[in-house]
């Protein structure tokens, strides 16, 4: 299972478990939000680390940039598209 599948499964679980959803959303207020998010996700069976989450977001964003106008400097700025953590929380709310 890849990180995207794990995030999707976690999102489904969080939507049916208000306590999990609240715990994940509360990570925004923590000193190290991504690490806290990953720690909670791991408690629910996810295997990714904070570095995996950051790397997957950057890889995904780089692929989008390459597919837009050849990936040159004229590619549109896609703000936030590289932040899987924040995108997950937005989709959860």
Question: What can you tell me about this protein's structure?
Answer:
With 93 residues, this protein is mainly α. It has one domain. It is 66% helix and 0% strand. The protein contains five helices and no strands. It has helices at 3-16, 18-26, 33-43, 50-67, 84-92. The longest helix is centred in the middle third of the chain and has 18 residues, at 50-67. It starts with a helix and ends with a helix.
Present the secondary structure layout.
Layout: H1 3-16, H2 18-26, H3 33-43, H4 50-67, H5 84-92
Salient structural properties:
93 residues, mainly alpha, 5 helices, Nif11 domain-containing protein
Shape: globular
Strand content: under 5%
**Main sheet record:** none
Order of helices and strands: HHHHH
- Overall structural class, as computed from helix and strand content, comes to mainly alpha
Instruction: Look at the structure and give the mean pLDDT.
Output: 85
Counted beta strands: 0
Radius of gyration: 14 Å
Please, how many helices? Answer: 5
Give the oligomeric state of the chains in this entry, treating copies of one chain as homo and distinct chains as hetero: single chain
- Termini Cα gap: 24 Å
Number of domains: 1
Identify low-pLDDT runs: none
Roughly how much helix do the residues carry, as a percent range? 55-70%
Protein name: Nif11 domain-containing protein
Organism: Roseburia faecis
């Amino acid at each position: 299972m890849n990180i995207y599948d794990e995030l999707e499964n976690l999102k489904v679980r969080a939507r049916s478990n208000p306590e999990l959803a609240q715990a994940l959303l509360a990570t925004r207020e923590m000193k190290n939000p991504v690490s806290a998010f990953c720690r909670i996700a791991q408690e629910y069976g996810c295997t990714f680390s904070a570095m995996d989450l950051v790397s997957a977001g950057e890889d995904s964003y780089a692929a989008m940039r390459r597919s837009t106008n050849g990936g040159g400097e004229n590619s549109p700025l896609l703000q936030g598209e590289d932040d899987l953590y924040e995108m997950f929380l937005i989709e959860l709310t």
